[in-house]
Design goal:
This protein is α+β, with helices and mostly antiparallel strands. Helices cover 26% and strands 20% of the residues.
């Protein structure tokens, strides 16, 4: 199923002045306290690019997704009831924690590794069972056996019965939370340590110090993912994770926030700019990806945010499993049959010496490199010495994992391969339909799946990987062509954040929402309905930054400046509205001139990327012109004078033309 979560979240309220006074008296950068002290009078917006998925470009895939979605909705209604039963039995677990863990580990899918459709035990990864994705040993903890013991039931019941599986996970988590004296009334960030222990990876004290550090990073990554899901909230076709704001500075220290790429933005709403934090020792917020940055040249920058030297956007976490390479001939697309944090742990310490060059997280497209490109990772058998491997978080039987952020990050990485190694051409990528079995492709196809190589038994990435879409991402900007970035036919696409999500938004309340709507549309069957509701506590005019890809450039499709245009169909029944777009440029974010939206008619609004008169500087070092050859869409902006009436705006077919 395609991921099109509609999230609802409130903007963070400023800290009280009393609390600000206490923070200002704290030691510098104690849990980032000094950085947060400036939040008095500002808005803190934990701004993470997460799930977004456009309509599939393969018609057969679209049909399979519709079938999968209808079946999944029925199961999820049952799971919601089982979660309620688990909270009743273990009332100390904070509300929403179990749902968030299930979302991170399985996307609320009842995993049955021995059943049809699950796929192979990819890279010998320990198999995960049930809605909660509990491990049964095989190199990780025996969560199934231990949970069954705590419940007093057979292990088979925990593996096969969804209700028992959820109760077993609740018993395990309750034990860890009680050890930390955490209960249902505790702040959500207080669960971090218990979540790390619950994760079920290798023990923290096992092996050498370097290995232990990597395992600690994997557990922290798991806890971060669970907290991040709660921070944003999820409401996605039966999957509901209640939103609970996370005080990230209390969950992790500053170096960990750097390493985890935590959402940590603070915006000066009054001045309509990103606060640079230059007064607190050089810690700052990057104006483009809106995450924390350490002082340049500091030990924190070097130690906490070590980057790949092969591909700078990636983190570097070393795997010991690699061998000599003979050539650079192709790129292999994998699906992990597991989740991101667990795979990092596994590829660093496993009995089968398996590994991959790069791993990509589903929620936001974060990339971790584990094997240098000049070495052979152990991921595709006899072809290891000639290919580069990318592992994508998720399971082949559930398309929810294949988000826009993941596709975009993966395609950018593969384009890097194509630009670096002459034998690998992006134009020679596979673009046929996905399948469930082995389909050996000729050596002339340079970008293909694990299932497309000879001498293999694995069938990933499987039937839900959209090869047509991936090919178009690898080969953008076809002369004379154009493309729809978001059609809203099967999802909210890149626009999966609520209208009030961005700290730059003013005047509207957190009750405002954005959702797919199939009654009012311009093209196809559906559009995006944006309901704007006034913030009664504010007299500010409305300025709504409706983020694309969570505002993270890496989560959006590339737009070509030369001869390029970006536009959107807009409809409203309200007067006085206008719209603009924001573009992430190489020197900051530029914002277009606003165009009026006529009442009661669909209107196509468009802006030229290479016309300087249509752009104004906004944040960063922006100069009021699009200067980079390739840029990304940051947001659609909606403006109106303050009003107490609700306003509906409909968007359709956000597109780029060259």
């Amino acid at each position: 199923m395609n991921e099109y979560s509609v999230t609802r979240r409130a903007r963070r309220r400023p800290l009280s002045r009393a609390l600000c006074g206490r923070i200002l008296s704290a030691k510098p950068l104690s849990c980032l306290s000094l950085a947060l002290s400036l939040a008095c009078g500002f808005v803190v917006d934990a701004h993470a690019a997460e799930r977004a998925n456009a309509a599939p470009q393969d018609p057969a895939l679209a049909q399979r997704l519709r079938v999968e979605e209808s079946l999944s909705r029925i199961d999820r209604q049952l799971y919601a009831g089982y979660f309620r039963q688990a909270y009743a039995r273990y009332p100390s677990i904070p509300a929403g924690t179990l749902e968030a863990v299930a979302y991170v580990t399985t996307r609320w899918q009842h995993l049955q590794p021995d059943g049809a459709g699950y796929g192979e035990q990819h890279q010998h990864m320990p198999r995960a069972y049930g809605v909660m994705g509990l491990y049964r040993g095989e190199g990780f903890a025996d969560q199934v056996g231990e949970g069954a013991r705590l419940l007093g039931v057979p292990a088979q019941r925990v593996m096969r019965d969804p209700a028992s599986n959820i109760l077993a996970a609740a018993a395990l988590l309750d034990r860890e939370l009680r050890a930390d004296a955490v209960n249902a009334k505790s702040p959500v960030e207080a669960t971090r340590a218990a979540l790390e222990r619950y994760a079920g990876f290798a023990p923290a004290g096992a092996g050498a110090a370097a290995k232990s550090a990597v395992q600690a990073h994997a557990r922290a990554s798991f806890a971060f993912d669970v907290l991040s899901v709660q921070d944003k909230g999820v409401n996605d076709r039966g999957i509901v994770v209640p939103e609970r704001a996370v005080a990230w500075e209390r969950a992790f220290d500053a170096p960990a926030l750097l390493r985890l790429r935590a959402p940590f933005v603070r915006l000066d709403v009054a001045a309509d700019k990103v606060e640079a934090l230059g007064a607190d020792g050089g810690w700052r917020i990057d104006p483009l990806d809106e995450t924390l940055r350490a002082p340049a040249g500091s030990r924190s920058e070097a130690a906490a945010a070590e980057k790949s030297t092969d591909y700078p956007p990636a983190l570097w976490v070393a795997s010991p499993y690699h061998s000599t390479r003979t050539s650079y001939d192709s790129v292999t697309i994998h699906t992990m049959q597991g989740y991101y944090a667990g795979s990092i742990s596994w590829f660093q310490n496993n009995p089968n010496s398996v590994s991959a060059h790069y791993l990509i997280r589903s929620s936001d497209g974060q990339i971790t490199q584990m094997v240098r490109e000049n070495r052979a990772a152990h991921h595709v058998g006899v072809h290891n010495k000639t290919t580069l491997g990318i592992e994508h978080e998720g399971f082949i039987a559930n398309a929810s994992w294949y988000t826009a952020a993941m596709y975009n990050a993966s395609a950018a990485l593969t384009r890097h391969f194509c630009a670096t190694y002459s034998a690998i051409g992006c134009a020679s990528a596979f673009k046929g339909p996905g399948g469930t079995g082995i389909n050996v492709l000729p050596a002339s196809v340079k970008v293909k799946g694990h299932q497309h190589y000879s001498s293999q038994t694995h069938t990933d990435p499987g039937q839900y990987w959209d090869w047509a879409r991936y090919y178009n991402l690898l080969n953008p900007g076809t002369p004379g062509g154009g493309s729809v970035i978001d059609s809203f036919e099967s999802s909210v696409g890149h626009f999966d954040s609520a209208p009030a999500y961005s700290g730059s938004t003013t005047g509207i309340s957190a009750a405002s929402l954005a959702e797919r709507n199939c009654t009012t549309r311009k093209n196809g069957e559906c559009s995006l309905r944006v309901l704007l509701k006034d913030d009664a506590a504010s007299a500010n005019a409305w300025a709504v930054r409706l983020l694309s890809g969570g505002g993270n450039p890496g989560s959006n499709a590339a737009l070509t400046r030369a001869g390029g245009k970006v536009g959107v169909w807009v409809y409203t029944g309200a007067s006085g509205l206008s719209a603009a777009v924001g573009i992430d440029d190489s020197d900051g974010t530029e914002r277009s001139v606003a165009r009026a939206i006529p009442v009661n008619t669909w209107t196509y609004l468009e802006w030229r990327l290479d016309d300087d008169a249509q752009w104004d500087a906004w944040v960063g070092g922006a100069n009021g012109a699009i200067t980079a050859a390739t840029v990304k869409l940051d947001a659609v902006w909606l403006y109106r004078d303050q009003t107490s009436f609700d306003v509906n705006v409909y968007l359709d077919d956000v597109q780029v033309k060259n």
